[in-house]
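Re: weekly structure request thread

Next one in the queue (167 aa):
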Amino acid sequence: IFCVANEAADYARFAGMIATRYDGAHGHGRIADFVIHNEVNSNDWYDVGCGQGTPCNTNAWIDKYSEDYNAAFDTIVAAQPAAKVLISLEHSFGKSLDAPSATHALLSGETFLTRFAQQVAPRAWRVAYHPYPKDLFAGTFSADDGPQVTYGNIGVLAGGLAKKLPN
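Done, posted below.
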């Protein structure tokens, strides 16, 4: 149920319809922030046709998402130039967490964003980050939660992004 769009242009047309309808000028209120898909570094949430025994091609995965993102971004900002368009990631940030061949394939935020930033330049992208606890069933946080980024160490996300991807 969380498969990628068949065609980026179709997804962008839908996103553009939402951006136009909810632009604040047509009596339907305003949506100002748009998150393009959910937790796209997890194949469970952004299924690119791999995982579950089929190794994922990291570049193809990120390139497919970048295509969806670029098409949606361009359509959204055409309707609402001040809109914020975000990429959504789950809490696995450090490269040591890359697992493109796992049953539940995963790419770290670090790996994903490095290639993504190149693919979407010069667009002003933003990150919607889900800082879950390391153990989803324990609910505890710590400053030592790396390589995941949680509420205990979320400052490393902003610092890391500013250092590695300053633009």
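The helical segments are 8-21, 58-79, 109-120, 155-164. Strands lie at 33-36, 84-89, 126-129.
Next request, please.
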